[in-house]
Amino acid sequence: MARAVLPLLGLLFLFAPSAAAADERGVVLPESGIRYPDGFDINTVGVIRGKASDVAIPEKGPVRFRVASGRETYTVLASPPWYWNDLNGNGVDGTTVQVRGSKTLGKDGNLYVIAQEVVILGSNRVLVFRGEDGSPSWRVSGLNGERKGGFGSPMRGEGAGRGMGTGGRGRR
Predict the structure, then answer these.
(1) 122: left (phi over 0), alpha (psi -120 to 50) or beta
(2) Distance of CA 138 to the CA centre of its chain
(3) At CA 120, angle to CA 164 and CA 24, rounded to 5?
(4) Tens digits of residue pLDDT in 8-38
């Protein structure tokens, strides 16, 4: 029995680093110096509104896009690519959005928002990336279906309860 279990444990340890990498715990983004996804600070949460553009879906690191909001342009850090795809976030580019998240200034001098929630205005479609406490939704396991009512944000409204998108697989 023990001989059968040992190879299985070995395989488990082989795949453990890739699970941690997929979760992207504590990665410091080189260009901005922002710790992601753990750099979210509930004390700096604010809301921006503007036109989304330049969606980038990298192999590693968070999906990001720009939002031109008045005189400022922010880079929005959303989620790992697989979670972005689960939420079907591809409809953001070229739309007017409202983003709630943790605002910060990168070491590169650019403004960033670590997204908690993105509302695609006009459609009232909501992409939820983080819970009320700022913890990443993709780290939550066992969630199935929709999360109701957003998280008390002023962006809540008709159609705003779609938090986990199409099933929210949680950690892979």
Answers:
(1) left
(2) 8
(3) 50
(4) 334 333 333 333 344 456 789 999 999 999 9
Does 92 score more than 60 pLDDT?
A: yes
The answer to whether 36 and 24 have CB atoms below 8 angstroms apart is yes
Alpha carbon dihedral 66, 62, 116, 52, in 10-degree steps, equals 20
- My answer on whether omega of the bond before 37 falls inside 30° of 0, hence cis, is yes
Whether residue 171 lies inside any domain: the answer is yes
Residue 10 lies in a domain: no
Count of beta carbons in the 10 Å neighbourhood of residue 148? 9
Phi, psi (deg, nearest 5) at residue 6? -60, -45
Give the pLDDT confidence of 111-124 residue by residue, as tens digits: 999 999 999 998 98
Tally of domains within the chain: 1
Beta-carbon count within 10 A of 56 CB: 13
What value does the mean pLDDT take over residues 42-65?
A: 96
Q: What is the CATH number for 142?
A: 2.40.50.140
- Domain, as residue range, for 63: 22-172
